[in-house]
């Protein structure tokens, strides 16, 4: 079950666009937030939605993730060519979030700062990471997400459809889902208006999704007008899952869940400990190998010294009993 609502907000035109389709792979939901003057943003968002939906409907690719990726690439190419062909199209582009629910799993794709949330009983299981200037600062640990949300530069995106000839699409294709989970797709006009915990609380209420989305959009629109009425377009789509996916990633971490398999960090720690242990064994072995010859050398010296001492004692004894022989030997040596 899905419900979508979109409002113009405090702008003169609504440049958000959305669409859904039952494709051969499963249910597809697409939400775009256009940008660019002279109606360019609206045109870009609308074309992106249409191209992505139609591409999935006619695709013969057996892999849904590849089909979705190709569909978004097609949309990017079309918008880029149009933006370069017409003067009024210069600078137009759009963000995109696309959710493809196959019987096996959920596939999330996004470019820009529109978002997808997967929620279960008020907790975030998965959320896309914005392609924006401020979220690069978040990634670098310079600011937190709430500071990013409130920043004056929060609207500067680092990726978008139609901005360049090619596009880097971020796709997550390993999301399992269960009955009762909810997927929220929204533009920044929604998530940027309230703290994330409040947004999650509002869309996690135990009510029908139509009521939830209507109340959410109306509340955020009212907040915008209370603060001067210059707020952004706002679009939200809420999908409530009616049956569980075939594949269940019970041992693979999604945001907020417990991971039962070793993480890359723990693997690195294990490898480090093994290397240290092996290094210690090598050092010990080298020490033993170096130590043995020294002992033998010392023992050899002691034996030679002992033999020399015995010979000296024998010679001294002989000299005392045959003194004339000693003198004759010395003279012979001299001559």
Descriptive overview:
This protein has 335 residues and is of the alpha+beta class. The chain has helices at 40-58, 64-85, 133-139, 145-150, 188-191, 196-203, 209-226, 264-321, 323-334, and strands at residues 2-7, 16-22, 27-35, 93-94, 96-101, 106-111, 115-120, 123-127, 170-175, 182-186, 234-240. The longest helix is centred in the C-terminal third of the chain and has 58 residues, at 264-321. The chain has two domains: 2-253, PPM-type phosphatase domain (Phosphatase 2c, domain 1), CATH 3.60.40.10; 269-322. The chain is built from nine helices and eleven strands. Helices cover 46% and strands 19% of the residues.
Number of helices: 9
- Beta-strand proportion: 15-25%
As a whole number of angstroms, the C-alpha radius of gyration is: 38 Å
Instruction: Give the termini distance in whole angstroms.
Output: 124 Å
CATH architecture of the largest domain: 4-Layer Sandwich
Q: What is the 3D shape?
A: globular
Query: Tally of extended strands?
Result: 11
CATH superfamily of the largest domain: PPM-type phosphatase domain
- CATH topology tier name of the largest domain: Phosphatase 2c, domain 1
Mean of residue pLDDT values:
82
Structural class: alpha+beta
Number of self-contained structural domains: 2
List unreliable stretches of 5+ residues: 251-267, 291-335
CATH class of the largest domain: Alpha Beta
Please describe the biggest sheet, giving its number of strands, its sense, and whether it closes into a barrel. Answer: 6 strands, antiparallel
Strand and helix order: EEEHHEEEEEHHEEHHHEHH
Helix content: 40-55%
């Amino acid at each position: 079950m899905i419900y979508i609502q979109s409002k113009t907000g405090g702008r003169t035109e609504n440049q958000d666009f959305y669409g859904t389709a039952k494709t051969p792979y499963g249910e597809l939901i697409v939400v775009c937030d256009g940008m660019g003057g002279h109606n360019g943003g609206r045109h870009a968002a609308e074309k992106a939605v249409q191209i992505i939906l139609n591409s999935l409907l006619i695709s013969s690719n057996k892999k849904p993730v590849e089909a979705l990726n190709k569909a978004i690439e097609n949309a990017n190419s079309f918008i880029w060519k149009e933006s370069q062909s017409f003067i009024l199209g210069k600078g137009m582009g759009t963000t995109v979030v696309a959710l493809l629910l196959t019987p096996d799993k959920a596939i999330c794709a996004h470019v820009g700062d529109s978002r997808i949330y997967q929620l279960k009983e008020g907790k975030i299981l998965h959320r896309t990471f914005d392609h924006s200037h401020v979220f690069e600062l978040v990634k670098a640990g310079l600011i937190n997400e709430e500071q990013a949300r409130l920043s004056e530069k929060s609207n500067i995106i680092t990726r978008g459809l139609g901005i360049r000839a090619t596009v880097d699409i971020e796709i997550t294709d390993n999301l399992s889902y269960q009955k009762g989970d909810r997927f929220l797709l929204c533009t920044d006009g929604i998530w940027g208006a309230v703290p994330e915990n409040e947004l999650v609380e509002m869309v996690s209420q135990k009510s029908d999704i139509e009521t939830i989305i209507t109340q959410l959009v109306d509340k955020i629109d009212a907040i915008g007008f209370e603060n001067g009425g210059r707020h952004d377009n706002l679009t939200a789509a809420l999908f409530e899952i009616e049956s569980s996916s075939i594949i269940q990633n019970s041992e693979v971490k999604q945001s907020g869940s417990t991971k039962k398999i070793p993480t890359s960090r723990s693997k690195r720690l294990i490898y480090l400990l093994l290397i240290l242990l092996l290094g210690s064994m090598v050092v010990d072995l080298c020490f033993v190998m170096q130590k043995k010859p020294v002992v033998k050398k010392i023992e050899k010296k002691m034996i030679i010294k002992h033999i020399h001492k015995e010979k000296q004692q024998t010679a001294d004894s002989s000299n005392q009993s045959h003194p004339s022989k000693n003198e004759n030997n010395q003279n012979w040596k001299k001559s």
